[in-house]
Amino acid sequence: MKTTLVKPEEVKRKWYIVDATDKILGRLSVEIADILRGKNKPTYTPHVDTGDYVVVINADKILLTGKKEEQKKYMFYTGYMGNEHYKSVSDFRENKPAFIIEHSVKGMLPKNKLAYSMIKKLKIYAGSDHPHSAQDPISLN
C-alpha cells in the first residue's frame, strides 16, 4: 500500500455553514477545528493545510455549560506592569460575540505556522446573515 501526501496545489476546498444556535461551545469548536485542519478528509496530511472553509452564523446564541457565563474570564496583558485586564463571557457576548468561538477554535489548532492559514478560513457572524451564499456552503448540522 502506498502513502499519498497531498501537495498544497492539489487541495480542493469546500465551504461549510454551521448554525451555532443552542450548541455547546466546546463540542462545536472541536468539529470546526477538525474541518479547518482537514481531518474529516481521507487526504489529510499533517504538514499541509488541507482544511475547508467554515462559516458560523448566530454566534451570539452559543451555550456554555455550568456557571461559565459569569465565572469564565479572558485575560489580556499589554506587556506593561499592572496592565492586566479581565473580561467575562457576558461582556463579549454583548460587544463581540465572534471572539468567543474564535478564541476557542484557535486554542484547538496546532501551534505552528499552519495555524494562521487555518484560522483565516473561519468566518464568524453574530446574526443569521452572511455574505458567503455565492460559495453555496454545505450545512453541517
Describe the structure.
By secondary structure, this protein is of the alpha/beta class. Helices cover 29% and strands 18% of the residues. The chain has one domain (12-130): Alpha-Beta Complex (Ribosomal Protein L13p, Chain: A). The chain has 5 helices and 6 strands, in the order E-H-E-H-E-E-H-H-H-E-E. The strands form 2 sheets. A 4-stranded parallel beta sheet has the order 5-2-1-6, covered by helices on one side. It has a two-stranded antiparallel ribbon with strand order 3-4. The longest helix has 13 residues, at 25-37. The protein is globular, with a radius of gyration of 17 Å.
Shape estimate: globular
Any idea of the CATH class?
A: Alpha Beta
Percent of residues in β-strands: 15-25%
The CATH superfamily bears the name Ribosomal protein L13
Write the CATH architecture name. Alpha-Beta Complex
Overall helicity: 25-40%
Which helices and strands appear, and what pairs or packs with what?
Blueprint: E1 15-19, H1 25-37, E2 53-57, H2 68-71, E3 73-77, E4 84-88, H3 89-95, H4 98-108, H5 114-119, E5 122-124, E6 138-139
Parallel strand pairs: 1-2, 1-6, 2-5
Antiparallel strand pairs: 3-4
Helix pairs in contact: 1-4
